[in-house]
Structure to design on (187 residues):
């Protein structure tokens, strides 16, 4: 099972949409995807950098990993509205650690409202799905892909996220299948 958790309260249709899409995709490998609940934001306050007004993304991953172990999940995906960053980067849409089998996606900068535009829940869901698929690809050992349509293509901006597709290209999908077999998961 891939466990999905919200960090802080999120709109349930967004969570359900991500779980449904990711679940439909990973079901071909016999992997279910389940929303396992909400984790409060407060324990992650240590990740907050007041000079930046953002949270250091890597701080979330060990806690998510521990939750995954407790649930006997193959991976854990956290989704949050908190604005994340990593050292050397202005922001990140998400982050993953294959050895911890955990990933986090921030919808903060995926929202139109961040850019002064009208809210668009459908577009936000598409973006969140792409970032979830991307970070789970990293969890399962995929690197960035040079194909701009592949979901594993690096998103340096929201434009990059909007241009790429929601699925792995054939090359990345083959690598994913190989990596999942190594983990004892077979299609």
């Amino acid at each position: 099972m891939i466990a999905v958790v919200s960090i802080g309260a999120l709109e349930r249709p967004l969570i359900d949409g991500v779980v449904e899409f990711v679940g439909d995709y990973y079901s071909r490998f016999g992997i279910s995807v389940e929303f396992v609940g909400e984790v409060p934001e407060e324990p992650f306050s240590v990740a907050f950098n007041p000079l930046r007004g953002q949270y250091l993304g890597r701080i979330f991953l060990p806690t998510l990993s521990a939750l995954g172990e407790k649930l006997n999940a193959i991976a854990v995906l956290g989704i949050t509205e908190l604005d994340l960053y990593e050292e050397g980067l202005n922001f990140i849409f998400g982050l993953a650690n294959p050895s911890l089998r955990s990933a986090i996606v921030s919808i903060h900068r995926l929202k139109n409202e961040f850019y002064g535009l009208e809210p668009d829940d459908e577009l936000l869901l598409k973006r969140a799905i792409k970032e979830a698929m991307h970070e789970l690809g990293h969890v399962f050992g995929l690197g960035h892909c040079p194909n701009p349509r592949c979901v594993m293509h690096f998103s340096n901006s929201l434009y990059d996220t909007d241009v790429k597709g929601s699925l792995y290209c054939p090359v990345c999908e083959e690598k994913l299948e190989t990596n999942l077999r190594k983990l004892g998961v077979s299609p």
